[in-house]
Each structure stands twice: as structure tokens, then as C-alpha cells.
Amino acid sequence: MFLLGEKIDLDRWVIIILGFSGVYFIANPNFEEFNYINLLPVLCALFYGIFMVLTKKYSTTESSFAQIFYLSLGSLIISGVLGLIVGDGKYYTNSNVSMNYLSRSWNFIDAGDIGLMLLSALCGFIGTVFLINAYRIGNPSRITPFEYSGLIPTMMLGYLIWDDIPTINTWIGILIIIGCGLYLFYLENSFSDKSLKKSINRTINN
Question: 72 and 49 in one domain?
Fold first, then answer.
């Protein structure tokens, strides 16, 4: 990637694009009528990837806690602006279930809800610390496949809390994403092994 000064060959570009198509399958779109809202998960994945690349890029100049601070500050600003715009619920409609999540009225009255948000924030902070440190010291293409383990508890919680059962499109999307990630993992390991063998042979010959 250009941010890290790395060259990406055609095979990897094809796999990346195919992986993004998996995200669109998980969004379970209606192919008969295009809806821009279905692109939100794709944008989320895009910005997540950019953040992890920047984490790797500035790992030598910024500490992990400094990077977490920048992430939290950016999230606070964006959430604050979004809350000022839609927080009163004036844009809430029943036309789209996905948008209702963002446009509903933001209420912070229930002490139980505040407790759950604080618990979620603590868990998110701990997870982010480990994740950022992993990307700081490791190769992103080798770390990403391990993130797929999060799909299992995510689907379990979705079923237990919201009775959400993955659709066929969701399973197809999951398989596409995991397959692409594992193939990239294989390519990176294969390339590293070849480079290591060349280096060893060069050392022996010299």
C-alpha cells in the first residue's frame, strides 16, 4: 500500500476487491433496488483498514496509548457532531431499520444502560490496546485472519440478544471474507518463505 511504501500486485488487488464484495453480501442487500445505506458497512471496513495501516505506519513515532488517544478523540468528535444532528430523533423514520439505529433519539436516563455502555467501553479499550499493539509489531496481512475468530461470538451474541439468525447471504459473505483473508495469509507466508530461502542461499554461497 502506498501509505507504507509497499507494492501490491494484481493478485492481491483482486483478493481485496473480492473480500469487499463479501462485506456487501453480509449487508444482505436487495439487488433489485440499490440502496446507498448498504454501503455503510463497506465504508466502515474501509476506514477500519485505513486506521490499521496508519497504526502500522506511525508505530515507530507514536506510542500505542497515543494512538488510542487519537482514535478516541476522533470518535468523540464525530459522535458528538452526529449526536447534535440526529440525537433528538427528528430524523427517525420507520422506512429503514438500519438507519433507525443511527437516527433514533439518544437517551441516557437509564442507569442500567449507562452501566452497559461503560462496560462496553472498558472491553473495547482493552481489546483495542491488544489489537493496536499486534498491528504495531506484526504484519497486518498475518494478523487480520486471527480477527475472524470474532465472527463466532458476534453471531452467538446476535442470536442470544436479538434472535438474529444469519441468512444464506450472510454465510456466503463470511466465507468470502475468510477465504480471501486466508489466501492473503498464504501468499504472505509463501513470499516470506521464498525470501528467507534466498537469503539463506545467498549467505551460504558467500
Answer: no
68 with 132, same domain: the answer is yes
Query: Please, is 194 exposed, middle or buried when counting C-beta atoms within 10 Å of its C-beta (0-12, 13-18, 19+)?
Result: exposed
Domain boundary among 89, 123, 138: 138
Question: Residue 96: CB partners within 8 Å, gap ≥ 6?
Answer: 35, 37
Helices (H), the chain: 10-26, 40-57, 64-86, 97-103, 111-137, 140-147, 151-162, 168-205
Report the Cα–Cα distance between both ends of the chain, in Å, rounded: 33
143 domain residue, yes or no? no
- Phi/psi at 107 (nearest 5 deg)? -115, 135
Domain assignment of residue 103, given as a range: 62-138
Could you tell me the pTM of the whole model? 0.65
pLDDT in tens, the chain (206 residues): 555 556 667 777 787 788 777 777 776 655 555 666 767 777 887 888 788 788 888 888 888 888 888 888 988 898 888 888 888 878 777 666 667 777 778 777 777 878 888 898 898 889 888 888 888 887 766 777 677 777 777 888 888 887 878 888 888 888 888 888 788 777 776 655 454 444 434 444 54
What is the count of structural domains for the chain?
Answer: 2
In a domain, 158, yes or no: no
